[in-house]
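Reply to dn_fold:

You asked what the input looked like. This is it:
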Amino acid sequence: MAVQKFVLDHAFDEALFTLVGIHCNLEDYRLAYLINRVLGIALKRRKTDLDLSHSQATFSIFEWEDQKQLINWSLVSNICKKEEFQTRKFDSLFDSQEKIIKTFHLLPEYKTVNFLLKIDSEISTNKTKYILDRLLKIPQIATAYSIDSSMLKSKDNLIFN
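and this is what came back:
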């Protein structure tokens, strides 16, 4: 009896999504509100934050599912700052504790990006340009640009489900 072997292409390895990097100093809820207004979508805060157990960091995430086009939109913070206390011991009478702020990044290769807008569909370049143009109309956004997801080393961090 002959053995049949099926070889699948790497088409299933690559998740199709569009990723936009956003530079701004707004709070996450304020940015989500402005994006909702400009793009006509309805991002809402997820009940639980995105938790990366290996880095001990949590990132705020806003999501919206477009029922008409069957596309999921996610706005996630790229930066998480945690405050920790470190004990310093001296050869003195007093031990002191020092506050240290540790910074974690969802995508370490894009440390200057404050927020990431992930669209779970590979959309056309015209639609991407339209989204970028609309985002850049928000005065508080310094810049926004498309990120090539195939070049990311830490794309596993972008799996939110």
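The chain has one domain: 15-158.
Hope that clears it up.
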